[in-house]
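ARCHIVE CARD
CATEGORY: sequence design from structure
SOURCE FIELD: tokenized fold
FIELD CONTENT:
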């Protein structure tokens, strides 16, 4: 396995831990957890989506030519060069 694939796997492992922490914080907040818990979970979700796009490209699933994407985009949904 290449170093790049190992790095993607490590990223996924860290994201699983971060998601679990977010869920624990949410549960510990009771009926109305603090706003920062929602911010944390929203950011983890965004990072997860970016990691999924990266993994897709690294593993060669659905590789998109950067020139095909809309102007100003690098071919990955939601990202700007």
């Amino acid at each position: 396995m290449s170093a790049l694939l190992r790095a993607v796997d490590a990223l996924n492992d860290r994201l699983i831990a971060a998601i679990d922490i977010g869920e624990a914080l949410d549960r510990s907040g009771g009926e109305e957890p603090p706003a920062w818990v929602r911010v944390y979970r929203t950011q983890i979700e965004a990072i997860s989506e970016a990691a999924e796009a990266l993994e897709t490209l690294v593993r060669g699933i659905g590789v998109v030519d950067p020139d095909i994407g809309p102007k100003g985009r690098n071919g990955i949904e939601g990202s700007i060069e």
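CARD ANNOTATION: Residues 1-81 form one domain. The chain has one domain: 1-81.
SHELF: design records, drawer C
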